[in-house]
Amino acid sequence: MRFIAVFCWLLTLIAQPAWAATSPRLQGVEQQLAYLVAGAPANVGIAALDLRTGETVSINGDQPFPMASTVKVAIAANYLSQVEHGRRGLTDMIGGQSAASLLEAMLTHSDNHATDLVLKDLGGPQTVQAWLTQVGVAGLRIDRTIAQLLSDKRDLYDIRDSSTPMAMVDLLWRIDRGRLLMPSSRSYLLGLMSHCATGSNRIRGLLPPGTPVENKTGTLTGLTGDVGFITLPDSTRIAIAIFARGGRRPMAPTIAQAARTVYDGFTAALTNPFATALRAPYGILQPSSQAR
To answer: Higher model confidence: residue 182 or residue 26?
Structure first.
């Protein structure tokens, strides 16, 4: 039994992706993000990953932040994995609704009740956490239902139900690369995320019109987050996670500026790998009344 345990541990190490440190071609992006975060009235964490090369940039990327509703990506992925193994189905009825309708509600409209119904059907937070551990996702933890999270006393530095920005982009990388889901399930999940109707002034807020984005927002009192995928003009895909906690003004504009900085910086690095000069981040975005 001890041999089997050691063997499984070694497999986990092998499966863990080795993200490259910030490369010279992305140092300008990192500097711009650091400049943006330094001027923000909040604690901001950012991670962005080139899904093709594995190159990353991060600011406070190893700090845990509350996930809020961004956790719904992991819950949905776990359910779809169960569907692939024949243990559950999209037509299964849960609380009087089909699993497919619940997944759509939780990812496109961030429906908390739908999320907790799916979570209960899966066996609760501990079951999803066990799955994440089994598949090698570290730095991301699920401890409570959404109802419990919302009813508990708010502590934005509580380690429960938190993720580092780097752990979140690791989860996104595993989804995108087929490490967690088959192509059909991956397409299904990203299709739902592409219709995210909340937080339109966050990652999506300052990107060029028509930029493909699949994302999931997260919001608590004092916490604003957004995670997902951005596709650049040459079809390069970037996994990105941005969290901001604290501060006395809306943080959606900062998230939008960070996303645009990543978009411009990674695009410039692709066309001119020697262009690393610092420039001011993209212009300020006014808060939108549509954000949730």
So the answer is: 182
Residue type (1 letter), 284: I
Identity of residue 228:
G
User: Are 54 and 19 spatial neighbours (Cβ–Cβ below 8 Å)?
Assistant: yes
Q: At CA 124, angle to CA 118 and CA 127, rounded to 5?
A: 110
Mean pLDDT across the chain, nearest whole number? 88
| Tens digits of residue pLDDT in 8-49 | 434 443 444 555 556 678 888 999 999 999 999 899 999 999
pTM of the model: 0.88
Q: What is the CATH number of domain 20-271?
A: 3.40.710.10
Q: Which long-range contacts (CB under 8 A, 24 or more apart) does 186-190 make?
A: 188/80, 189/73, 189/76, 189/77, 189/80, 189/107, 190/214, 190/229
